[in-house]
Amino acid sequence: MTTRATRGPRRRTVVALAVVLAVLGAFVFRLVDIQVVNADDHVQDSLTTGNLGHTTPIAGNRGSIVDSDGTVLAASTLVYDVQLSPSLIEDVDASKNNPPEYLWAEASDKIAAVLGMTGDELRADVAADLERDPDSQYLFLKKGVDTAQYLELKELRDDSGLAYLAMKSRSVRVYPNGAVAGNIVGFLNGAGEGQYGIERMQAECLAPTDGERTYRQSKDGVVIPGSETVTDAVNGGTVTLTINSDLNWYLQQMIAEEAQRQGAESGTVTVVEVATGKIRAAAEWPSVDPNDIDATPSQYWTSQIFSKTFEPGSTFKAVTAATIINEGAADWSTSVTAESREYFSNGAEINDPFFHPKYTYTLAGALIDSSNVALSKYGTMVKPEVRYDYLDAFGVGHKTAIDFYGEESGTLHPASEWDNQSLYTTTFGQHFTITAAQLASTYQTFANDGERIDLSLVESCTNADGTVVEQAEPEHEQVISESTAAQVQRMLENVAVQGGLSERIEIPGYRIATKTGTAQTPDGKGGYKSGVYDVSIVGYAPAEDPQYVVVVTMDEPTKMRTSAATATAFQKAMTQVLKTYRVTPSTEPMDELLPKFK
Amino acid sequence: MSARNAAVALPQPHETPREAPQRGLRVVEAPRSRRRPRLAYALVALAGAALIAIAQIGLTLATTHDSFVLADLKSEQRSLRLETQALQEQLAGASSPQALAVKASELGMVVAGSASYLRLSDGTVVGAGTSADWTSTVDPTGSGAVANELLTQKPTVTEQTSSAASADEKPVQEPDTPPALTDGLPVPSTH
């Protein structure tokens, strides 16, 4: 029962409760108003004017290309494009709360000093832009500014308060070693996609996967905790090549000197490891520096080693010899007579490279003297279709397993299409075309005891998370038997020792085997240029246990017009290769010389 | 006895049973003093509420403070990374074979010909067997020089800020020839 005594405190309680309920009711009312009644309006507001939520893509880095030792040949880095908002300059200078440390007159001097312009030029540019459009928000200043300059400009903008300056970052490709292996590495086009070389062939391995970052931020740019979700970007993988960049540099330097010394149009050197078929160096001149592709004519932007076809000439006499030996039709001592010019029964006329009386050559002698007539006669010991099959088995008319971008396969006409002349000229490397890479592969077959191992250029692709994806194992094929290869190897060593260039190509301490080749260059009108030739020389060392094959080609040398022009280049190239890989010098003496004549 | 029982048996008008107070009636002397509520309980309640509020505020402060610290550290990391990048760019091309070869040739080094090898098992020298001569097989500064645009780019960092950066680029130097040896090569003492 409420008595006066209890009524007082009870009333206070009720009143207090009522007040609380009233306040609560007010809040509930307000909440309902915000969350239910006007909800859509508020959400719309937050999207349009609040601007709290942001999504930024996180760009991944394109992977780098490294050589067999890990030397970086291509990498991605950031450069910056500098721009100004001219209409903001006045506002910034006039700002009372936050005046800049330097006014425009002085600031423009500082900015210009960093960018390598004069202050006057900069002020004139800005004045001209403002005249053109007084509200101009954008004046482009300089493209491709490096990080050191970016940091200075950043200091000017952030610390000195020059808020009208802006620097946007941009990813570019840098090639630290310049033109070394430049034709192999390739370069990107304007859109950042690989255009030539490994950059294009391995684009899948090198390409990054972009990530995303979604967050809400407060007015001063601090991210509201708990509102950030990040999908990480995945960087591109690293492509490891089989190339040795130091060796490649030396060979590029050397062939550039030699080709210029011989007055040639261009030159290449290819080094293949016999035991694995890996290309250890692919040097050429002129070579492209991917940092500065416009310095080289565009025909040299791709690799000549893979894309320039030429008739091999005498280097393929060894293939004819291998064919007839493997078929059991002859061996090194089988003899034919040859004059320096002969007319064959079907009307073909074949000339030797030099005048000589009628000789009775052995097969070895025919190779040493590089007699076209003798080889034509040796070629008749097997059917043309058989010779075609062996040429095909050695890789003529097929691209190498590398399938370089822009690689040519060369042409080999079927034996049925060979006419009277080409029936014989195919025995000494004419009427079909090859690339320098195919020539290297052919002699790798000889050097590897008749087993051809497909050429390879890429070792592996290492993903950003560290997993290594090895290239597929190259194919092996026994093209000629080991005993045939042994005979051909012995003959090739005799060519090196008894041939005309033997003193120029000699490498002290090593036994080498070589063969030269001279080819006529097509003049583009269906005939051949006269007096200039595409010359080549191919060889391997050491002869008793071949480790490396070197092919040197030169286009149209003018000082020495025969394949003698390549002799010094070959000697230097092979010396350097043997030094680089510390190949043990030859200790077994050569077998006795093969007689040239019967 | 029966009259009294009858009187008792009949329902009697119910009167408020005023129980005979067993205890004695007393005169109220003075109102019992109301017990004041204990101050301690109030203080504890308030303090508890205050503590909870403070704890709440404190945790929120700590969380947001961390995000400010994080923002600071991230910006510091970014500026350090940019500095590293700037320093690395100054080295760009410096370790390329072309640059090393030019520096080596300025020091008087040459790329010699075929090498000789010392076979340790029996002490024989295999290979060329002759000493190297001083003709270089290539001339890195000559007409065949392999191009590298990174080495030919002119530096654009201004004088006043090059002190902030590390080594200056492309120093023009006379070839550093090693000091002349007058009393043989220095021989290390080995055990």
Detailed description of the structure:
- The complex is a heterodimer of chains A (598) and B (191).
- Chain A has 20 helices and 21 strands.
- In chain A, strand 20 and strand 21 (548-555) form a beta hairpin.
- The radius of gyration of chain A is 37 Å and the shape is elongated.
- In chain A, 44% of the residues are buried.
- The model of chain A has no long low-confidence stretch (mean pLDDT 91).
- Chain B has helices spanning 2-9, 39-91, 97-106, 149-152, 159-162; strands at residues 116-119, 124-127.
- Chain B has a two-stranded antiparallel ribbon with strand order 1-2.
- In chain B, a hairpin with a 4-residue loop joins strand 1 and strand 2.
- Mean pLDDT of chain B is 76; it is low at 156-176.
- Classes of the chains: A alpha+beta (598), B mainly alpha (191).
- At the A-B interface, helix 4, helix 6, helix 10 and helix 20 of A face helix 2, helix 3 and helix 4 of B.
Primary descriptors:
heterodimer, A: 598 residues, alpha+beta, 7-stranded mixed sheet, 5-stranded antiparallel sheet, 36% helix, 21% strand, B: 191 residues, mainly alpha, two-stranded antiparallel ribbon, 2 strands, 41% helix
Major β-sheet of chain B, in short? 2 strands, antiparallel
Query: What helical percentage do the residues of chain A reach?
Result: 25-40%
pLDDT averaged residue by residue of chain B? 76
Count the DSSP helices of chain B: 5
Task: Summarize the topology.
The complex is a heterodimer of chains A (598) and B (191).
Chain A: H1 4-37, H2 39-50, E1 53-58, E2 65-66, E3 72-84, H3 86-94, H4 104-115, H5 119-132, E4 139-145, H6 147-158, E5 165-174, H7 182-185, H8 197-201, H9 203-206, E6 211-216, E7 229-231, E8 238-241, H10 245-261, E9 266-273, E10 279-285, H11 304-307, H12 317-326, E11 335-338, E12 341-343, E13 349-351, E14 359-362, H13 363-369, H14 372-379, H15 384-393, H16 420-425, H17 436-447, E15 451-453, E16 458-462, E17 468-470, E18 476-478, H18 482-498, H19 502-505, E19 513-522, E20 528-541, E21 548-555, H20 567-580
Parallel strand pairs in A: 2-8
Antiparallel strand pairs in A: 1-6, 2-3, 3-4, 3-5, 6-7, 8-16, 9-10, 9-21, 11-14, 12-13, 15-18, 16-17, 19-20, 20-21
Chain B: H1 2-9, H2 39-91, H3 97-106, E1 116-119, E2 124-127, H4 149-152, H5 159-162
Antiparallel strand pairs in B: 1-2
